[in-house]
What we know:
Chain A: Residues 80-139 form the Prokaryotic-type class I peptide chain release factors domain. Chain A: This is Class I peptide chain release factor. Chain A: One of its GO terms (molecular function) is translation release factor activity. Chain A: Belongs to the prokaryotic/mitochondrial release factor family. The structure holds two protein chains of two kinds. Chain A is built from eight helices and five strands. Chain A is of the alpha+beta class. Chain A has a three-stranded antiparallel beta sheet with strand order 2-3-4. In chain A, strands 1-5 form a two-stranded antiparallel ribbon. The radius of gyration of chain A is 21 Å and the shape is elongated. Chain A starts with a strand and ends in a 16-residue tail after the last helix. Residues 1-66 and 246-250 of chain A have low confidence and may be disordered. In chain B, helix 2 (57-74) packs antiparallel against helix 4 (87-101). Chain B is built from 13 helices and twelve strands. By secondary structure, chain B is an alpha/beta fold. Chain B has two domains: 10-146, no CATH class; 150-362, Rossmann fold (3-Layer(aba) Sandwich), CATH 3.40.50. Chain B has an eight-stranded mixed beta sheet with strand order 1-8-7-6-9-10-12-11, sandwiched between helices. Chain B has helices at 10-19, 57-74, 77-82, 87-101, 125-137, 142-146, 170-180, 184-187, 200-206, 222-234, 279-282, 298-310, 324-337, and strands at residues 23-24, 53-56, 118-121, 148-151, 154-157, 190-194, 214-219, 241-245, 259-264, 311-320, 342-349, 355-362. Classes of the chains: A alpha+beta, B alpha/beta. At the A-B interface, strand 2 and helix 3 of A face helix 4, helix 7 and strand 11 of B. The structure holds S-adenosylmethionine. The site of S-adenosylmethionine (SAM) has 22 residues of chain B, from helix 9 and strand 7.
Amino acid sequence: MxxxxxxxxxxxxxxxxxxxxxTTSQTHNISHCHFLHHPFFNIxxxxxxxxxxxxxxxxxxxxxxxxxxxDLTDDDLMRQCEMGTFKTSGPGGQHRxxxxxxxxxxxxxxxxxxxxxxxxxxxxxxxxxxxxxxxLIALKVRKTVDLDAYSPPRELLQILPPKSSIRGSDIxxxxxxxxxxxAMGMQALLDLIFAVDGSVSDAAKYLGLSTGALSRLILSDDxxxxxxxxxxxxxxxxxxxxxxxxxxxx
Amino acid sequence: xxxxxxNHNFSTLLNSSFINLTRPFCSLSLSSSxxxxxxxxxxxxxFLRPPIYSTKLNDLKKWHNxxxxxxxxxxxxxxxxxxxPDSTILCRELKWFIEDVVENHHxxxxxxxxxxxxxxxxxxxxxxxxxxxxxxxxxxxxxxIVGCEHWKDLVLSVxxxxxxxxxxxxxxxxxxxxxxxxxxxxxxGVWADLGTGSGALAIGxxxxxxxxxxxxxxxxxxxxxxxxxxxxxxYSLQDKIELREGSWLEPLKDMEGKLxxxxxxxxxxxxxxxxVLQAEVGKHExxxxxxxxxxxxxxxxxxxxxxxxxxxxxxxxAFETNGEKQCRELVDYMKSNKSASLCNLExxxxxxxxxxxxxxxHR
Lengths: 250, 363
Ligand SMILES: C[S@@+](CC[C@H](N)C(=O)[O-])C[C@H]1O[C@@H](n2cnc3c(N)ncnc32)[C@H](O)[C@@H]1O
């Protein structure tokens, strides 16, 4: 299946503001890491070359077959990232007490950047950054949908409200925005909305929902709503807002 | 090559070793009278103390405002004097301070509640004034104020006399985790963390080893051994981690040629840099944990001999250094003096891009 990345670099700045809460006093430079991957996730390590050495090798990282990123485990996803902390001045290590533990991940295949810095340990910030990366990937990486043969994937069915007519009883209870699995459903939903050129009423038909019910679902997550509205704006369609729910949404 | 403990720094190490004869210490028997570290009572970090104090919300707010104002008044003056924390960092610490002290900190300042309402706390309000004063006036490290540091997914107890573990050092555990994931023998072997301090590396590694795997953590400082013992117990790793008091290799005489792995973050700061360190570090952290001698290499060179002597064939080692210069010197030293025993030498950078670690294997 073909995947399209509709990630425009100009988005990065907006996204950074929206998705990160790092302190203002730090320099936001990514440092040049001497290895591409982070060993925390048992990853291939790239040493600085010394003569006559045999690098530690691990099995190669999962191939980036454009997309499928959200199917990857955290470890595998991390393997596709370049990681940096915020540039520190001075020698670091034993010299310093400053808790410079903010983390910045750059997902190399897509160029998406996620960062986190509000936790007390670097390890935890890394975990938050990867969680953010997942939702950014879900929002920004699109795959083409064949509307003629469309059947919603299970991840999407799981985030639909029970009143959807195509949602079988075997799907289980509805998954909300706080569940980590929501990102994958959101990605599939955005794929569909993208395929129908931003029309919520058309998308709703494919999902066995009323336009109002799908709008409510879109409004339940801020980043999802923003993404749908950005898409609609690019197609010159009015955005979806709570106050316009009563009105007919096309 | 036969081992010869004759590098130019060894005599100084030998002297300190003689004064501090090996005293085995087992974390299982904190009550044992054999060790001097048993007489040291580790302090309980604030976040683990019972919430037995009760304060009016209003009084807590007053303290909070007072503390915040002081933090703001600092501006960037500490940054200018010794690259210390600015008010943004101090305010962040204040937030963490409240998290550790107040039982229900989540709803604390958000509620419209009654100012006479009582708040449950783990320290007395007077103590909070006193502690924040120490933070600002004495530049006492925040981690000593609250008695803990968040390191990897652990919360380790620390107190004056024990080095606060650094984020850079987390990487050593990751390197070890990577190595043992590919080598079952090393995963089940005995590892050593020399100069264990709070026990950070020993505990981190203890948790990535498999069944049968063990870690021996050693330190010259009785306070460090006591605090490490407390942390080991808190993570219920008494069966996996043994602590021994003594200088570098001495408490591990029984392990010659037997270790699967050897890690250390030894003191590596050149002596002349100690007086100009950031006050939190230079005035409060133990000198014995920081001062690595004239060029900072005393302990590191000694540890090379340790890797040669203690590791079994195929065993792994990882050392933290002060940066690129020390990494290069260490590798050069090993290449010219230890090439018969140590191989696959590599240098790794930390996340700020500074070449920080030297790793390798025993042939
Ligand atoms: C930089 S600290 C590292 C502590 C801990 N491993 C960490 O990474 O947080 C160095 C440690 O080495 C210990 N040390 C200093 N001289 C020593 C010696 N001769 N023998 C054993 N340990 C020593 C210090 O007490 C201190 O705990």
